[in-house]
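Q: Hi! First time asking for a complex rather than a single chain. Here are the components, and I think there are two in total. Is that enough to go on?
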Amino acid sequence: MQTRFILIQTSHAGNVGAAARAMKTMGFDDLVLVAPRWANVLRRDETIQRASGALDVLEKCRIVDTLDEALDGMTHLCATAMTPRDFGPPTTTPRAHFAQLTQQAEPPGGVAFLFGSERFGMRNEDVYRCHTCLSIPSNPQFGSLNIGAALQVIAYDWRLALGGFADAPPLPVSTARLADAAQVSGMLSHLEQALVALEFLDPTAPKKLMPRLNSLFNRANLTQEEIHILRGIAKSILQLPGAKATSKAVSSEVRDSGHEPSV
Amino acid sequence: MQTRFILIQTSHAGNVGAAARAMKTMGFDDLVLVAPRWANVLRRDETIQRASGALDVLEKCRIVDTLDEALDGMTHLCATAMTPRDFGPPTTTPRAHFAQLTQQAEPPGGVAFLFGSERFGMRNEDVYRCHTCLSIPSNPQFGSLNIGAALQVIAYDWRLALGGFADAPPLPVSTARLADAAQVSGMLSHLEQALVALEFLDPTAPKKLMPRLNSLFNRANLTQEEIHILRGIAKSILQLPGAKATSKAVSSEVRDSGHEPSV
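A: Yes, that's all I need. Here is the structure of the assembled complex.
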C-alpha cells in the first residue's frame, strides 16, 4: 500500500528532520511538506542533524503550496488531531483503525497521514477532507506529542499492521538446549552433596533449602550447558580438601528421598 | 505497576527533554539519568524547550553516577538495544513482551526501561543485567530510532498493554442515526427521478447507474440526516424550471423495479 506522510505548515526544521528519520526507520520514504515555514527547510542544519542519515527521504521530499497538491494519488486520508471536530470524520485510535483498514476486502491504494503545524494543529477544513481522525491514546492531562514522536508512533503501528518487515532478520532464537527434569534433579543432588560438604546444609535438618533451590532453577529454565556449569561448581566444592567427606551418606539420603543419585 | 525510564550516558540535552515529554504524554513520570554528559542537563535550554511543558518530569528526575543507583526497587529490567548480545537476555519485540508481562500470574513490581547513549548504545555488562532485550521492529537497512522516538514507542506500547488511560474521555461516538434500507431505497428513487429529469439518466436505457449509486451509498453508511440532504438535492433538481416533468413515469418505473416510490 502506498503510504505518504504530509506535514502541513511545519515551523521547526528539526521536526522535519525527525519526521524523515522516523519514516525511514519504519521503511517509508514519501514525505510531502505543505507550505513549511522555511523555504529552505530541507537544507537547514537542524533538519539534516535530526534526520541523522535519512537524507534520501529529505532528497525525495516534495515541498508544495497547498494540501491539494500533496494529495495526488492518495485515496484514504488520516488526520492526526488532538481535538475531534464537529462535522469531522470519525475519531479512532491508530491500532484499531489500521487493523480495520488492512483487513477490509478492498484496502485503499494510497494512504496519507496528515500532521498539522506545531502550534495550531490541523485546520478544520483540512480535517473535514479526511476519512478518519487518528487519536493516539495519551495522558488526558498532557496529550501533546511532539510531531516527530507522533509520526514515529503512527509509522510504527502502521508498519506492524502492514505485517512488519518481511526481510528483517528473524529475532535470534536460542540454540541452547533446555535441561530436562532428570538433568535438573541430578544437578540438584550433586549440589546438595556439595552444600552438605560445605556444612551449609545440615542433612539431619535440611528444612526447605533444596526445594527452594529447585524452584529457583525451575523458573530459570536451565540449559544443559548451565547444568554442566552448576555440576562443575558442585564437583569443585566436593573436591576441596576441607569439604566434609559425607557425600556417600548424603547420596543414599538423596536416593531415599526419590532424587536421582549424583553422578 | 511502577515504571521507570533510565537514560544511560545521554549526550544530547534535547533528547532528555524529548524523553520527559514522551513519558508524560503516556502518563509516566519516573526518569533517572545515569552519568549524563552535561551535569546541568535538567536546566539547559534545549532540554526545557524539547520537554515542552513536561517540566514536572524534569523536576522529579534524578541524576546518579551508576546504573546500580538507578535501579532501586526495580524488579524487571528491559534493555533497549539494536544488536542482540551473545550471552545477553532473550531478544523480543515490545508488544509481544508486554502482553506476556502483563498477563503473567505475578507481574513484576517495578519495570525499568534502559536506554544507552546515542552513539554507543548500551554496554554489554548493562545488557547482561536485564531480563529481556526489547527490539523495536524497524527497517533492516536503517533501524536506528532517535532515543526520544524510541522511548515514545516503548511508552506507548507499554501504556496500551497496561490498559490505556482509564480516566481518558471516551472517543466521541457518533450520535447520528444510520439510515435504514428503506430510507436509502426511498432516497435512491427520489434521486433517480431527479437524474431522469436532468436527462442524465435515460429511463429506457438506464444501464447500471442506479445500482452503482446504490453501492456507493451503501459503503458510505448514510445517516438519516444525509438522506434528508440527498433528498433535498433531488427535490431541488426536480423543482428546476428546466427539469423534464417525467417524475410520474419514472416513479412507476421505479415501483415496477421493486424500489420504494419516491415521496
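A: The CA atoms of residues 137 and 151 of chain A lie 14 Å apart. Let me know if you'd like any chain examined more closely.
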